Backbone:
């Protein structure tokens, strides 16, 4: 009986031990599964974060690529317009010029405002189409047919500044037409670059010299009078005379009037009546526009007038020196002649600043000695760039004030009358 009890006890103990072992093993496996589940969760979270970061970087890179692509596209559009502008910024007209002008304007109009600011070429910039120079519709290109037998062709270098073209060039043409009602006055520009600019931007068609002469021939003109508005017998005048040689036999008579300053003369001391008239006219206009009652009053106020011409390497550059002589001869000691090109040498900006400083004047009025108040007057004289005459005079530190009068010679009534007189004189010969 005792043996059976012991056996039973052992069996029970063994079973209990196995039961404990099984519980322990189960607990161990359960605990292991729990640890593995937590590790998997952390790994999944990290992977998800990495995926989100990758997606964010991909999106950022895509945004950057889109922005760079957009910038490249903007610049490409601007570069296309710049190339089209450069293509018409030339002095020779071709059979493709009209089409090129139209293409350049259409391409410019298609740009956004931001793209227009990016236009930059060898000659092209946003101002080519974007700068407001006045109302072109006020101008008259004088390129009409029905000329008749008698024509006065007024030949100018030209300007793309609309207001100046109306006030200065059209002003001269209108004065000549009023003085010669039985003749037809027509226009020609010698600068094809300007003709193309005005045509492309404003849709105004102006004849070059060849076109104007061909128009005269086609219209049956017999008597042709050419009135240059050029300042002197310089390079532009010479080129005009060469062109006219090719048409001499197309008309019964061809007469060419004097440019504004008349005959050049041998040296700086030689002056003439034309230069005297111009000197008196520009002084009177400049003094009045500066608010002075007389030249003497301006001088007493310490004011000097600087008249800025273009300048040239042509032999006719002596005309500028002659104008300085002319001003001195009429008693004007507070007026100085300068040139954009600095030819003659004494007309350079540095030389003129030194001359005005040495003379003791503290106020300066800059004004163009040019038929039109165009690019040179607005930019080289009165511009904001550091190399403009206005900027350099201010930078010298020698003057209390420097003012500009952006007004062309052509708008002055006495200058218009002088051109009329030149035309009348050659017509009477």
Residues:
């Amino acid at each position: 009986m005792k043996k059976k009890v012991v056996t039973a006890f052992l069996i029970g103990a063994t079973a209990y031990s196995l039961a404990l072992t099984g519980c322990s093993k189960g607990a161990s496996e359960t605990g292991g599964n729990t640890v593995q589940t937590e590790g998997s969760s952390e790994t999944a979270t990290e992977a998800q974060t990495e995926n989100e970061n990758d997606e964010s970087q991909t999106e950022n890179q895509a945004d950057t690529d889109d922005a760079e692509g957009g910038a490249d596209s903007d610049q490409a559009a601007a570069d296309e317009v710049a190339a089209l502008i450069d293509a018409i910024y030339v002095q020779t007209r071709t059979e493709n010029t009209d089409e090129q002008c139209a293409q350049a304007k259409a391409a410019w109009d298609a740009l956004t405002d931001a793209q227009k600011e990016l236009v930059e070429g060898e000659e092209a910039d946003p101002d080519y189409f974007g700068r407001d120079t006045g109302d072109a519709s006020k101008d008259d290109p004088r390129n009409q047919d029905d000329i008749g037998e008698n024509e006065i062709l007024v030949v100018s270098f030209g300007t793309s500044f609309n207001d100046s073209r109306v006030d200065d060039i059209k002003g001269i043409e209108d004065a000549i037409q009023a003085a010669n009602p039985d003749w037809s006055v027509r226009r020609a520009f010698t600068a094809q670059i300007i003709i193309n600019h005005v045509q492309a931007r404003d849709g105004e068609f102006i004849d070059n010299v060849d076109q104007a002469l061909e128009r005269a021939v086609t219209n049956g003109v017999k008597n042709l009078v050419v009135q240059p508005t050029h300042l002197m017998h310089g390079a532009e005048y010479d080129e005009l005379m060469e062109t006219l040689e090719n048409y001499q036999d197309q008309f019964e008579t061809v007469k060419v009037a004097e440019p504004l300053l008349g005959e050049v003369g041998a040296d700086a001391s030689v002056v003439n009546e034309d230069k005297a008239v111009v000197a008196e006219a520009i002084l009177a206009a400049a003094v009045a526009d500066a608010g002075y009652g007389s030249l003497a009053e301006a001088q007493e106020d310490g004011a000097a007038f600087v008249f800025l011409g273009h300048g040239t390497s042509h032999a006719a550059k002596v005309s500028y020196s002659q104008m300085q002589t002319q001003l001195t001869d009429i008693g004007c000691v507070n007026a100085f002649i300068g040139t954009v090109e600095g030819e003659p040498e004494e007309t350079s900006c540095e030389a003129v600043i030194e001359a005005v400083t040495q003379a003791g004047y503290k106020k300066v009025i800059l004004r163009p000695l040019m038929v039109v108040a165009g690019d040179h007057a607005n930019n080289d004289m009165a511009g904001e760039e550091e190399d403009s005459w206005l900027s350099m005079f201010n930078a010298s530190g020698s003057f209390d004030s420097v003012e500009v009068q952006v007004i062309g010679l052509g708008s002055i009534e006495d200058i218009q009358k002088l051109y009329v007189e030149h035309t009348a004189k050659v017509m009477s010969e």
Summary: The first helix runs from residue 2 to 88. The mean pLDDT is 89. The chain has three domains: 62-130, 136-262+415-428, 273-410.
